[in-house]
Design a protein that fits this description.
single chain, alpha+beta, DNA primase, PRIM domain, three-stranded antiparallel beta sheet, 9 helices, 15 strands, about 25% helix
Length: about 350
């Protein structure tokens, strides 16, 4: 792999200029500190199909709790809500202050789903929104999930997994991480995905770039890189594209960066840089996925990938125990230290 020209992908320029997608955060009624909200402990009623629970002083109406979302395991909507309530202290720091794209499964994991960007109306007055100007010149008011009450509210709408923006709402154009979405093409197994992830790590390590993997909960692995906030999303995408194309050329028997499906080779792992494009989202860390046995998008260590983890190792029924044992492996993405600087001042 060639000596990667970091500043070629992200040109030098002043990063404080106005961008084309201004965003505005509008707080809900009676905002409180986020830290205090996370201390709430909620038990979803087991003997009611509809219930109202208190989450940090906010009443949340929950419906159809007995509806089965995963028939093979008889996992219900109640079980899904309880999972998110139990792991909220780990999850909320990763999604707060970010616009949330709602992917709603009203009839369970295998039913039809639909995407919804605009926060539904009516909604609780305490749900904050992030107004983002889209290229169509339309302002879209996305919900923002900052506390346990908001989390229960959005999951009750049928959101099995959570899909936050890469940038925080105070500037929706400037993300604070980039990622590489590793997705197997037909004929490739998860062992090849693990090999691909290790190749990504090796290439990033060569430039002293820290990276953190998580399973997607579906078929692949996401590799995240915390960055110093500054470059706009298009610049981050440009870096990811140049890096991915270069890496795929260096390892053509394992990787491909070919985005056109018809030309994409089989038995390879796609390094999907396009997921870094503006307006795209990925399932967040700790999200349950609408797949058999309710797998979870779980942070893992590089040592675990080397030893051979699988998607099915991390599920809704065992994630709570894992978090108690290993803590939040994605916490470095929340810290200001050890972030990679994509641009040169």
């Amino acid at each position: 792999m060639r000596n990667y020209p970091l500043n070629e992908a992200v040109p030098k320029r002043t990063l404080s200029v106005a961008t084309g997608h201004p965003s505005t955060f509008r707080a809900g009624a009676n905002p409180r500190t986020i830290a205090s909200k996370r201390k709430s402990r909620v038990t979803i009623p087991a003997d009611q199909d509809d219930a109202t629970v208190d989450a940090g002083g906010k009443e949340v109406r929950l419906t159809n709790l007995s509806k089965v979302f995963w028939p093979e395991d008889q996992i219900t909507k109640r079980d899904l809500l309880q999972y998110y309530a139990d792991i909220s202290e780990y999850l909320l720091p990763h999604i707060e202050s970010r616009a949330m794209v709602m992917k709603r499964y009203p009839n369970g994991a295998y039913g039809e789903f639909f995407f919804q960007k605009r926060a539904p109306s009516p909604r609780p007055e305490w749900i904050p929104v992030c107004e983002i100007l889209h290229p169509s010149a339309n302002l879209v008011d996305f919900p923002v999930i900052n506390d346990l009450a908001g989390l229960l509210w959005v999951v009750n709408l049928g959101c099995i997994d959570l899909n936050p923006w890469y940038a925080r709402c105070d500037d929706a154009d400037r993300p604070d991480y980039l990622h590489f979405d590793l997705d197997p093409t037909p004929g490739a197994d998860f062992g090849l995905v693990r090999e691909a992830a290790l190749l990504v790590r090796e290439a990033l390590d060569a430039f002293k770039i820290r990276s953190y993997p998580k399973t997607t909960g579906s078929r692949g692995i996401h590799v995240y890189v915390p960055i110093v906030r500054g470059p706009v999303q298009k610049e981050v995408w440009s870096f990811a594209k140049a890096f991915s194309v270069d890496l795929a050329k260096a390892h053509p028997q394992v990787l491909t960066s070919e985005y056109r499906v018809a030309k994409r080779p089989a038995k390879r792992v796609l390094v999907d840089y396009n997921q870094n494009a503006w307006g795209r989202t990925l399932a967040s860390v700790y999200s349950v996925r609408p797949k058999p046995h309710a797998p979870v998008s779980a942070p893992v260590t590089w040592q675990e990938i080397e030893r051979g983890v699988s998607i099915d190792d991390f599920r809704m029924d065992n994630m709570r125990q894992r978090l108690k044992r290993v803590g939040d492996l994605f916490r470095p993405l929340l810290l200001q230290k050890n972030r990679f600087r994509l641009s040169v001042p």
